[in-house]
Amino acid sequence: MMAEVLYMSIKDYAKHVSASVGTIYDMCRKGKLPAVKIGGWRINVKRADELLEQMCNEHMTEYTPVIKPAKVNIRTANAGNSYLARLEQIRKGVV
Question: For residue 34, how many C-alpha atoms fall within 13 Å in the half-sphere facing its CB?
Answer without folding.
Answer: 11
